[in-house]
Each structure stands twice: as structure tokens, then as C-alpha cells.
Amino acid sequence: MKKHQTLTTHSLFYQQYLLYSFLYENLRKRTLRPDYFLIQGLPSTMAVTSHPLIRLIKLLLILTLVGGLGMASLVGYVWYCAQERSVQPAPATIVLGAAAWGDNPSPVFKERIRHAVNLYQAGTTQKLIFTGGTLRADMASEGEVGARWAIKQGVAAKDIAYEKTSRDTWYNLKNAHVLLQQEQIHSVILVSDYFHLARAGIMARDLGLTVQLSPTPSSKFNSYSKADKLKLYLKESYLIIGHFARKLIEPDFYQAELRPIQVPR
Prior knowledge:
By secondary structure, this protein is α/β, with parallel strands linked by helices. The chain contains 8 helices and 7 strands. It has helices at residues 9-31, 36-40, 52-81, 107-121, 142-152, 169-182, 197-206, 226-249; strands spanning 90-95, 100-101, 104-105, 125-130, 160-162, 187-192, 210-215. Helix 7 runs parallel beside helix 8. The model is unreliable at 1-7 and 31-48 (pLDDT under 50).
């Protein structure tokens, strides 16, 4: 039932704020009793705000407000990056993998590929790089499936490359970056679903790339309700925080996998 659904992040911050406000006011009223300081053996001139618990609750209130504002700002950034926009010509486009169903791209992945092919055919980009591995050795990788599907749509094989070992967005980009370095390409267009591009853009810039974001206009997620889209933005916001944390704790974070990037036969 709806009333039992999990609270969103914003409502959770709000609930924490109300709780700390209640505790603060309750404690403040208690300490304002005329005999309070005498009972505690404290000077009667001591300010109420000097009570350790009040200082602690004030600190918690401030942290909650700052955390809520920070998360709201991050969600706003994810939303901003999700908006459709025109892009300037770039030498290469990276298509982030979604899923492959056998030898065919999933509906989500197919729309990403379709958008990249449209950019190529419009002359906006000269090379398409497909990314994504596979969970099983006997199945085609997302990168391989994407490359083959693009060739069927009229993209020249010489203008396509793919990698087939990555299993998340960061390694999608790290592996693609190996090829870009080999061809001395520093400017790219990123293609993915709208909610995914803020995080992908941050990661690509971490690798030193100049990035333009191009969300898939026919994304299967466009039909989501506003509430469901907000959940996607919140999830991506947490994943962005996780990305920054990962940079701090993994010493080899920026080392490329250096797996071979393939060209379709």
C-alpha cells in the first residue's frame, strides 16, 4: 500500500529535522525552568545554549539542513544534465552499454544505439565506440552486439570500435578511454538514458575528456511518472557520491584496464 512505501530522501531529511527541532525545543523549555540551574548546581546566569545536549542538537540540525540542501543540489544537477540539448560536432561518440539479449540489444540499449547512429549519419560524429561486457563467456558482449547492430543500420565498420570486458559505467569509460588515447581523441559525445548522464559525465571528465551529453530522446524511461523519475535522480545522486568515495579509497582508481578494444569483423 502507498502509505507503507519507503520515505524518499527529502522526506527523510525533513523527518530528521522535525525530530531534532522537537528535541531542541523540549530541552530548551526544561532548561528555562527557574530552578533548573540551581538543581544542576550551575550558575543562574549560564546561557541556555551552553547546555551540551542543546549544542549537540543544534549541530545535528545544521548537519541535517546542510545534508538536505546538498542532496537537493545534487538531484538538481542530475536533472539538469538529463535535459535534451543540441551538441556540437565531435570526433567520437561513446555509447554506454545497457543489456544484450542474446545477439540483440535490449530495448533500452537499442534506443541508445539508434540515437548514436543518428548522430553519425547527421555528420555530428565520425566514430562510434560501444561499451559493455557480458556475464557469460558463451554470450556476446553488449559492446559487440551494439557494434553489429550499428553496422546493420548503415554505419561503416571502420568507424566503429567496441570493448567487451566492462561491467559498470566507470569501466565502460575507462576501456573506451584506452582507444581514445591511441587515436589522440580528447573530445567526445556521451550517449545514454537521461538520468545516467550526470554521473557518466563526471566520470568522463575525471579521465580528462571534454564531454558533451546527449540523452536518448526515445528513452524507454521517458514514460515514467514524475515520482519514478525522481527516484532515478535520487539513485544516481547516491551513485555519484559513491563514485567520489571510490576515488578516495581505491589507490588504482585511475589505472585503465588496458583490455584490448575490438573492431568488428
